Amino acid sequence: MKRNIFIVFIGLISLSACKKDFLEQTDPNAVTVEQFFTSPNDVLLAVNGVYQSLRSGNNIGEGSNLYTEQRSDNTGINDNQSNAGEPFQFGDFSILPSNTYLKSHWVSLYSTITRCNVITSNIDKVTFPNADLKAQYLAETKFIRALMYFHLVRKWGDIPLVTKQLTSNDEVVANTYRQPQATVYTQIVTDLREALNSNLSNLATGANAGRVSKAAINALLGQVYLTMATTLESGKTENLANANTYLLAAYNMKSFASLATVPYADVFDVTKKTNNPEVIFEIVNLQGNITYASSIAANNQAFGETINSRRAPTGVGGNVTPDLVLDYETGDPRKDFSIKYAADTRVLDWFITKYRDASEAATVNGYGGNNFPLIRFADVILMLAEVNMLQGNDAAAIQYLDMVRARAGVPLYAVARNNAAYTSKYPTLKLAILHERRVELAFENHRWFDLLRNFTAAELVTYFRAKSQANFGNARLSNFTTKDRFYPIPFDEYKLDPSKMYQNPGY
Fold first, then answer.
1. What is the Cα–Cα distance from 344 to 328, expressed in whole angstroms?
2. Which among 26, 77, 303, 451 could bridge 344 via Cys, Cβ 3.0 to 4.6 Å?
């Protein structure tokens, strides 16, 4: 056995019993799994720990745009000092298997899965006076495990799949091998369908904000089926039907009559976040709290600007590609809300303003109260447009598309199609929906996955290389090849067993 085999799933045997040495020494203060799970409250603490792990920028928290948005055509790292660094490799399509940021992301996602597996493997040891409470905790855990695997399978393709607590190095070795995407998707669907068989509320509100709800489960399940329909080789018709079913179930759980009744700016207003009717699943932050505050507003602040935060800016803010700037239609208010041009001579570029908290409560340290949206109703509505378009039901697809356009205050699709500039850029309904998702959901880490759903690897190469290099700065579009459909398996994982942890093509 290789001595460093534990790297594959770092922490997979945390909380579990370790092999005793010849002295039979034990730490009297250590708590084993068997000792920890004794009451429903212990399970709750473990579930809360799973939620906590999502906050990390190495996971899917507000700082995780490196692994999604910067991989797309929306944002990037464009200052000269960063061009030789590892983060620049993501947008430059020059990423190496040895990239330490990529490995950190892999490890963080699997660490969350490990936490979930510890719960599902030990929850039966606890006596619950209320069976519904046990079902609730299991549903939350399985949703998050499914969400983690959904990120992994879309980013790496075939991946190791583990759904139980591993308690020894031998078990880790036995489970360290890549499994086909279809197998991973089957497990994701199983977890989400089982999670639906709980008494979770339709929407998570009030004190439960940020927790899993039935609307979130339905929305994710719909997105999973939509992704399967567009990326797997078989089952397209059935997967599209299921995607429509679950996305519609999520949509019907909304608390508002029309999306137009929820102003776009209100969705991101920290003073209105406790009564935000559009949110489905989000990471909740606490304004002014040094540990649980949001830093996205302050981190996106550019030199010479005060719109985002009271914290003094220290850089150019969140970079926005000119390619995205030019994709906003004339008069689209989402542009002025989401981005701004910084005229400071140290910047002279666009930066992100979608997440703002310049209130006194956030303090000059920039401890913002922005919640980070992971799923919201506009996302679901536009996925319904996408599904209906793929099913050949253009009329329904346009109705969903127009719900979002009407809220934004831009011309409805039938009118927009009469605009030569619009039709030249979006000659098909598919491209119109993809455009709408881009400007509606910018900086919410959806764009890369949207591109993967709508284009094959070869089509994506054509799509990127047809863009203007001038609108991407230092990131080289010519680097993009079919290999960039997936990330490379981190080198430390591949070298453990090159046969079972085989590398993705091109790396």
1. 23
2. 303
